[in-house]
């Protein structure tokens, strides 16, 4: 399959960009792709430590554990580590090891990693994160995807990787007007890939990234090589008995996931109805922000109740600190509101070749029959372990499944 290589792009000198996004969505007409370096001000970090030192913790029911929400014992431990031992400058260096850029799309500054493979015939791929994640979720997979030979793989499986921060998240700009729902996010992804000169590209996503990537595959189908998802959503197919032919174990698993999520939907209800109210607390209290995010990292991962079996404190706090220094927890939550306010979802079947990586700890696991009705499903992988944050929890499994699927489409 023929792919167009990245053309020469006129870019400015590397600049150290301030982390806090500006609230504007007025178009500038500026199509430059500008190198970006994360450089959080010392004053921002000093203020963070001061706030952590003044944390006013709530009380807790005796022996509550995580039953009422984030454990008080664990949060005190995490906050103390954040204040006294976490090294944001080391995290910055880790992130700045990747080639990062910004560009204006529809009047918003969009931040992204664009890591080119050393192999000229590599396949372009755009990978999109969700909530409460960030582009940081992909730091363990970018190297193996771009340079397989350096990580024990075959150079023929190489990718040019684009990993963006979706608008309102991380170092991308915060929308200040209504209407930045998943459909508009999908337009941003397609326009970004076009601006980078890719006329054919692969698409991958989980969480909101899965929803956005599905829309990219629908709206930009002539340019999409294939779609790989690690969160596959699909309603029951039409017909008098949508469950006919579904293996009993798949149906039981789906129903168990649905029952589990009954107790997990509170965050989505408030983010989908009153994100601004929530934002006042989370944008002002780093301890509150950490509690809100780490509870989901624990319950949505394949952690068996111990979040640090999946994520180190440094990894947890790098992700949380990205939200803190960019002040994007409120704008990230607004995506839930915008999604609920948007017009009816596009229910067309995705016809581009699709792969589903089914991780057992994923919060949504419909039967394969449901997914086949909604997508041109070419690959279905039952993973042995891993959860909602697939690329970060199980980078080796993630990378191998992405390689294997797109190997058939090169």
Provide tags for this entry.
10 strands, 410 residues, Rossmann fold, disordered N terminus, single chain, 15 helices
What does the model show?
This protein is of the alpha/beta class and 410 residues long. The protein has a single domain, classed as Rossmann fold. The protein is built from 15 helices and 10 strands. The protein has helices spanning 42-53, 72-84, 88-96, 142-146, 182-195, 208-219, 248-262, 266-273, 275-284, 286-300, 313-326, 329-341, 368-374, 390-393, 395-407; strands spanning 15-17, 33-38, 100-105, 108-115, 123-128, 159-165, 201-205, 224-229, 350-358, 375-382. A 10-stranded mixed beta sheet has the order 1-2-3-4-6-5-7-8-9-10, with helices on both faces. Strand 5, helix 4 (142-146) and strand 6 (159-165) form a beta-alpha-beta unit. The radius of gyration is 21 Å and the shape is globular.
Topology:
Elements: E1 15-17, E2 33-38, H1 42-53, H2 72-84, H3 88-96, E3 100-105, E4 108-115, E5 123-128, H4 142-146, E6 159-165, H5 182-195, E7 201-205, H6 208-219, E8 224-229, H7 248-262, H8 266-273, H9 275-284, H10 286-300, H11 313-326, H12 329-341, E9 350-358, H13 368-374, E10 375-382, H14 390-393, H15 395-407
Parallel strand pairs: 1-2, 5-6, 5-7, 7-8, 8-9, 9-10
Antiparallel strand pairs: 2-3, 3-4, 4-6
Helix pairs in contact: 1-2, 5-6, 8-12, 9-10, 9-12, 10-11
């Amino acid at each position: 399959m023929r792919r167009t290589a990245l053309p020469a792009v006129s870019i400015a000198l590397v600049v150290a960009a301030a982390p806090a996004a500006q609230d504007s969505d007025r178009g500038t007409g500026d199509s430059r792709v500008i190198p970006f370096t994360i450089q959080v001000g010392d004053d921002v970090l000093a203020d963070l430590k001061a706030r952590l030192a003044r944390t006013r913790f709530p009380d807790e029911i005796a022996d509550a554990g995580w039953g009422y929400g984030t454990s008080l014992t664990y949060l005190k431990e995490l906050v103390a580590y954040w204040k006294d031992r976490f090294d944001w400058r080391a995290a910055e260096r880790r992130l700045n090891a990747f080639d990062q850029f910004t560009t204006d799309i529809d009047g918003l500054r969009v931040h992204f990693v664009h890591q080119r493979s050393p192999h000229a015939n590599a396949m372009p791929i755009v990978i999109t994160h969700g909530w409460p994640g960030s582009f940081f979720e992909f730091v363990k997979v970018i190297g193996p995807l771009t340079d397989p030979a350096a990580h024990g793989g075959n150079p023929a499986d190489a990718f040019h990787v684009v990993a963006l921060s979706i608008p309102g998240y991380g170092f991308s700009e915060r929308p200040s007007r209504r209407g930045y729902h998943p459909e508009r996010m999908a337009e941003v992804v397609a326009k970004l890939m076009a601006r980078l000169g890719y006329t054919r590209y692969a698409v991958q996503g989980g969480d909101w990234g899965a929803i956005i990537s599905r829309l990219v595959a629908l709206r930009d189908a002539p340019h999409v090589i294939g779609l790989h998802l690690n969160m596959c959503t699909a309603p029951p197919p039409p017909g008098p008995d949508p469950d006919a032919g579904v293996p009993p174990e798949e149906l039981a698993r789906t129903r168990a996931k649905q029952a589990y999520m009954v107790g997990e939907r509170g965050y989505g209800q408030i983010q989908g109805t009153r994100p601004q109210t929530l934002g006042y607390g989370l944008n002002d209290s780093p301890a509150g922000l950490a509690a809100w995010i780490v509870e989901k990292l624990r319950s949505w991962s394949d952690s068996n109740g111990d979040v640090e079996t999946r994520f180190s404190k440094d990894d947890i706090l790098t992700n949380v600190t990205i939200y803190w220094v960019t002040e994007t927890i409120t704008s990230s939550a607004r995506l839930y509101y915008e999604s609920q306010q948007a017009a009816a979802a596009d229910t067309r079947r995705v016809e581009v070749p699709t792969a589903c990586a089914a991780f057992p700890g994923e919060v949504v696991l419909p039967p394969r029959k449901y997914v086949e009705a909604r997508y041109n499903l070419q690959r279905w992988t039952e993973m042995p372990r891993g959860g909602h944050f697939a690329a970060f929890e199980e980078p080796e499994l993630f990378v191998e499944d992405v390689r294997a699927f797109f190997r058939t489409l090169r």
